[in-house]
C-alpha cells in the first residue's frame, strides 16, 4: 500500500488508496451489505494504474527497460492508460495495440496521452498474425530497446493487487469481508486480491464475473479449454479466449456468466441509482451479485470492485441509440420511430427501376445493405433483396445486365412512425423482409427483419 501524503511528488504516487462506498438504493433487494471499491478514483480512472506501474517498476528493477525505451502492450484501453502515466512520468515511449471493439473514447484518450495506437481486428484467433497479441509481439521484436509487459502473464499484474488492492479492502472492511466480486479479464485483479484475502481468511468467497463467449467458467468447472465456448461478444474488459497465467483458478470459488445486455443495463442503473458513472464491466460484476443473491445472508459483507470510469463508454452503454441497435433497451411501448432514431438523419439508399441490376448490387455492397427499395420518380415501385439477387445470379449469370424493373419484388409496405414495434413486426413475412416508415419531414426510412429481431430479443 502506498502512503497517503499531503503533497505528492508526481501523479504515480496518487495511485491506490481508493474509497469504498456502500451501495444503497440499487442493493435494497440484496440480503447483505454491499460495498463498492471504486477504482475510477485512480489518476488514470481505472484499477489498471496499479498493475501498469508495478510491471514497469519490476522491469526497471530487472533491467528489462532502459531510459528512453519503448513500452509495447496489448490492452483493452485501461492498462494502456496506466502505462501512459508511467511512461510520461518516467520518460518512455508507449505503443498500444487494441482490438477494434474497444470504445473510440479509449483510443482517443490514449492518443491524447501521447501513445501510438494500432487497432487490430477482434474477430481473429489469438494466434492470427493480425490479432492484438501478435501485433504487439511483432513490434516488440522489431523495435530496439522495447519492453512488452504482456499483462496476461506478467506476475507484476497480480502482484500489484496482492500488495495494494487486497490489503486496502481488508483494512477498509476491518476484516469483515465475506465475498469479493469482480469481472475477470487478465485475472490480475481477482487473483491478487483473492490470494491476499484467502490468506487472511480462507472462508472468504472469491467470485468472478465472466461473459458468454469466454473460456473461464467452463475451464474452472471442468478443466477443459473448450474452443466452442469462444465467440465475439460486446462487453469490454472481461472474458478471454486464452488462459492468462495471471488467472489463479485455485483462489476463485465461482464464475458466473453475465449477458452483454444485463451488464449494459446494470451499468446504466448504477449511474441512475448510485450516481456512479462506471465502465461496462461494473454492470457485469454487480449483476453477478444479483444472480447469486439467493446464497447471501444479512451478515454477509460483499465487496464488488468497479474497474473504471463511465466516461470511456458515453458513446456506447450510455448512448440510447447504441443500446437500441443491439436490442438492449426495453421495447415495451416503443414505436417504429424508435427503431430508426439512430440513423434517421442518414439518406435512404434506393435503386432506380431503370438502373442495371449489376449497379444496384455494387451499391448494396458499398453500403453493406441487404434490402433496397426501388423508385420511379418519387414513387416506391418495388424492392431488391440480396438473397434473392444471389439466387438469380447463380442460376443466370447474365441477370446483372437486366434492369432492376425486370427482377424487382413487390414494394415494401409503408407504415406510420408511431406504429407499435410489435405491429411493425406483423408486416414482415417471407415475401416482405422490410417495411418503410414515413417520417414527419416526409422522408422515408427502412426497418428490416434484423432491426426488429434486435429490438424484440
Ligand atoms: C474495464 C475492465 N474491467 C475488467 C477488467 C479485468 O481485470 P483483470 O484484467 O485484472 O482481470 C479489465 C482489464 O483490462 C478492464 O479494463
TrEMBL record:
One of its GO terms (molecular function) is transferase activity, transferring alkyl or aryl (other than methyl) groups. This is Cysteine synthase. It comes from the Bacteria. CDD domains: CBS_like. Its cofactor is pyridoxal 5'-phosphate. Residues 347-391, 404-456 form the CBS domain. Residues 13-306 form the Tryptophan synthase beta chain-like PALP domain. It holds the Pfam family CBS. Keywords: Pyridoxal phosphate. InterPro entries: CBS_dom, CBS_dom_sf, Cys_Synth/Cystath_Beta-Synth, P-phosphate_BS, TrpB-like_PALP, TrpB-like_PALP_sf. Belongs to the cysteine synthase/cystathionine beta-synthase family. GO terms for biological process: cysteine biosynthetic process from serine.
